[in-house]
Automatic annotation (TrEMBL):
Residues 129-191 form the Polymerase/histidinol phosphatase N-terminal domain. It comes from the Bacteria. NCBIfam families: CehA_McbA_metalo. This is CehA/McbA family metallohydrolase.
Length: 428
């Protein structure tokens, strides 16, 4: 995978403040470019040693003050969904903005304020994270801060804390983290679980006693804008025993460590795809507490997203731009058909139907499979000395989809288990 870093630009400004301006507010105007995802503003004050110059810091957009930290900080981040404490996240609309300074104490000779603004732009790229986790807000032992901290350490980009039948976690997400916090809620019934993603408070009352009640609760979540996931539908302990025809967007094919429950769902999903249904598969660790096998981002869900935001990530999932690996370290598999990527539909008019598979972070002995609506089309074993990479090509004639799997022998269980799984490229 060619790791795509978001585009960044830096602007540096210098402002001299005279002693006569002491006690006044000074603006440093700048133009906010289009398509900015986040800005980072930092400043230093240059003055004679011992002069005691004090300059406060804040920012405004074209309509209002968006944050103020006084003399408490030398920098802050401001994004579409998160910001440094003291600052309001939200739209970063192009136009006239200004860094705000309070000339609290200015020496007789004046001082110079140097401001650096780093602009990070929304850029299509692969982001990775976990769409099914729990915290102390239900039956988990991790605090919200601990969950976010672990995901940061793993190098992940997003997490959904989907606590059982509560949305309280969505109201107290930590703000000072680089990890995108996707609002989550696990609709938990006695006959099946479903995740609601992307909405802070998707449901007023989770209690159900029949199929009509379930349909009603799903309808409420849908009206409030939630994306609906059928969780671990073939689990031994809490399978989906309601009607599979209920309203839903995606299915959790991979829940926690790979076991027969996931294999059953994988087979069911394949049948759905063969029938012509274009149903996106996702994964989630379902982590609750420290465990030798159930860990954060195991499996890891990768999303080709338009921006590192809740909207960008969930839109990517909705388009089927999703692959799943057993951990954040991979393996990573890309499928392409010309300019078409995982989750996209190749039109009938497209002349080339050549599928190109490129797998990375493989280990010798990994089994790479290309699977279509007809079944397994190609199968190769990753050799030694290939830098963990395999490339395949396949002419996708007379098939309605092609997807990929990687299987690996894990010594911990002495068995062959799923190591990576892609969503399909579809064909009209």
């Amino acid at each position: 995978m060619k790791k795509v870093e978001p585009k960044r630009t830096i602007s540096i400004f210098s402002l001299f403040i005279e002693h006569a301006q002491q006690g006044t507010y000074v603006e440093l105007p700048f133009d906010m470019p289009s398509d900015v995802e986040e800005i980072r503003v930092g400043y230093i004050v240059e003055a004679k040693e011992g002069s005691g110059a004090v300059i406060d810091l804040g920012i405004r957009d074209s309509h209002r003050v968006r944050g103020w930290s006084g003399g408490a900080r030398t920098y802050f981040n401001l994004g579409l969904e998160k910001a440094t404490p003291g600052y309001l996240p939200g739209p970063l609309s192009a136009g006239s903005w200004a860094v705000l300074h309070n000339a609290y104490k200015i020496p007789q000779d004046g001082c110079t304020v140097k401001v650096t603004i780093e602009f990070t732009y929304a850029t299509q790229r692969w982001l990775k994270g976990d769409l099914h986790t729990h915290s102390i807000n239900s039956d988990g032992s991790y605090t919200l801060e601990e969950n976010a901290g672990i995901m940061e350490q793993l190098g992940c980009d997003f997490i959904a804390m989907t606590d059982h039948n509560t949305s309280s976690q969505n109201l107290s997400y930590p703000r000072d983290t680089s990890v995108v916090m996707i609002p989550g809620y696990e609709f938990t019934t006695n006959f099946g679980h479903s995740n609601f993603l992307g909405v802070t408070d998707p449901l007023d009352d989770f209690r159900v006693s029949n199929q009509a009640d379930v349909n009603d609760r799903l309808g409420v979540a849908r009206e409030r804008g939630a994306k609906i996931v059928l969780n671990h539908p073939h689990c031994d302990y809490c399978p989906w025993e309601w009607d599979f025809q209920v309203d839903h967007d995606w299915v959790e094919v991979w829940n926690g460590p790979w076991t027969m429950r996931n294999e059953h769902t994988l087979n069911w999903w394949q049948q759905q795809l063969v029938s012509g249904r274009r149903l996106t598969a996702i994964g989630g660790s379902d982590v609750h507490r420290p465990d030798p096998f159930v860990k954060h981002a195991m499996p890891c869900t990768w999303v080709f997203a338009s921006s590192k935001t809740v909207e960008g990530i969930l839109n990517g999932v909705d388009k089927g731009h999703v692959l799943i690996s057993y951990s954040p370290e991979g393996p990573f598999v890309e499928l392409e058909c010309g300019s078409y990527k995982i989750g996209e539909v190749v039109p009938e008019s497209e002349r080339s139907r050549t599928i190109r598979l490129q797998a990375e972070n493989l280990k010798a002995g990994d089994k790479v499979k290309l699977i279509s609506s007809r079944g397994v089309e190609q199968e190769v074993i990753a050799p030694d000395g290939e830098n963990g990479m395999v490339e395949l090509r396949f002419e996708a004639d007379h098939v309605t989809f092609v997807r990929a799997e990687v299987w690996r022998h894990f010594k911990e269980t002495d068995s062959l288990l799923m190591a990576a799984l892609t969503n399909p490229i579809y064909f009209d």
